[in-house]
């Protein structure tokens, strides 16, 4: 069974540009979560999608947005990139009641803003 | 909201036991997890414990939960160099996303 896949693995953008990150969950998982892992800050929750709807949002500005497609894959968009957006972006998936089995994580997209 | 705290660094000698500690604030937390992150990789679920349990053992891993003190620990017996990684404590408190600690970087000295 394929795990959670994220693309691209690495992304280099210039300040002010837009970045799009993609995630495919494990088959049968309907929930997708996005976390930002910046140096020294641990994992910060960004967004949670389930059944195509945004269920919860972390304390990030509106230029961080995303969506979930009918096949449950998801994309994260970051507009007007700033240097401090440089981080590892992790996607995770779970069944709807994610608490019971935890989340399965992808390997992440390393975003570098120059 | 939930707050999860961990010490940032731990260094042990190969063959010794490692104990990584975590504290949380929400007493309604139902499931608690330990994840491992190796360099350049995502997070791998190591083990979990339900809030109605005090202890869980899984091969070299022992998880202890003290609900009264809201304290969770992960003990790794016979620590090996391959155990060097960042270990994250995570807490589930209902229909909200998992809340993670900042992670404990475990260094194993040969």
Can you walk through the features of this model?
The complex is a heterodimer of chains A (114) and B (110). With 114 residues, chain A is mainly β. Chain A has strands spanning 5-7, 10-13, 19-24, 31-37, 43-50, 53-57, 64-68, 74-78, 87-94, 104-105, 109-113. In chain A, strands 2, 4, 5, 6, 9, 10 and 11 form a 7-stranded mixed sheet that branches. The radius of gyration of chain B is 13 Å and the shape is globular. In chain B, strands 2, 4, 5, 9, 10 and 11 form a 6-stranded mixed sheet that branches. A 5-stranded antiparallel sheet of chain B has the order 1-3-8-7-6, with no helix packed on it. Helix content of chain B is 0%, strand content 56%. Chains A and B meet through strand 5 and strand 10 of A and strand 4, strand 5, strand 9 and strand 10 of B.
Write a brief structural summary.
Chain A is mostly beta strands.
Structural descriptors:
heterodimer, A: mainly beta, four-stranded antiparallel sheet, 11 strands, 51% strand, B: mainly beta, five-stranded antiparallel sheet
The overall strand count of chain B is: 11
Given as residue ranges, the uncertain stretches of chain A (5+ residues, pLDDT < 50) are none
Distance between the termini of chain A: 37 Å
User: What would you report as the Rg of chain B, rounded to the nearest angstrom?
Assistant: 13 Å
Shape of chain B: globular
Query: What do the pLDDT scores of chain A average to?
Result: 93
Task: Determine the mean pLDDT of chain B.
Answer: 93
Most residues in contact, chain pair and counts: A-B, 23 and 23 residues
Oligomeric status of the shown chains? heterodimer
Question: What is the share of helical residues of chain A?
Answer: under 10%
| Share of residues in strands of chain B | over 45%
Helix and strand succession of chain A?
Answer: EEEEEEEEEEE
Count of helical stretches of chain A: 0
Record field, number of beta strands of chain A: 11
**Structural class of the secondary elements of chain A?**
mainly beta
The low-confidence parts of chain B are none
Structural class of chain B: mainly beta
**Discrete helix count of chain B:** 0
What percentage of the residues of chain A does DSSP assign to strands (E)?
over 45%
Please state the CA-atom Rg of chain A, rounded to the nearest Å. 13 Å
């Amino acid at each position: 069974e394929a795990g959670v896949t994220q693309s691209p693995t690495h992304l280099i953008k210039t300040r002010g540009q837009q970045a799009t990150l993609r995630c495919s969950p494990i088959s049968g998982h309907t929930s997708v979560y996005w976390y930002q892992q910046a140096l020294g800050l641990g994992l910060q929750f960004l967004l949670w999608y389930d059944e195509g709807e945004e269920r919860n949002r972390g304390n990030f500005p509106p230029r961080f947005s995303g969506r979930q497609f009918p096949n449950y894959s998801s994309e994260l968009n970051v507009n007007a990139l700033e240097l401090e957006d440089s981080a590892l972006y992790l996607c995770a998936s779970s069944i709807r009641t994610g608490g019971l089995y935890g989340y399965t994580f992808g390997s992440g997209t390393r975003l570098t803003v120059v | 909201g939930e707050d999860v705290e961990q010490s940032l660094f731990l260094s042990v000698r190969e063959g010794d036991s490692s104990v990584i500690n975590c504290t949380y604030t929400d007493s309604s937390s139902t499931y608690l997890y330990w994840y491992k992150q190796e360099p350049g990789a995502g997070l791998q679920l190591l083990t979990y414990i339900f809030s109605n349990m005090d202890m869980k053992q899984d091969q070299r891993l022992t998880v202890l939960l003290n609900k009264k003190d809201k304290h969770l620990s992960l003990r790794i017996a016979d620590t090996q160099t391959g155990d060097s990684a960042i270990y994250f404590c995570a807490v589930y408190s209902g229909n909200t996303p998992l809340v993670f600690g900042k992670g404990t970087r475990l260094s194993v000295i040969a």
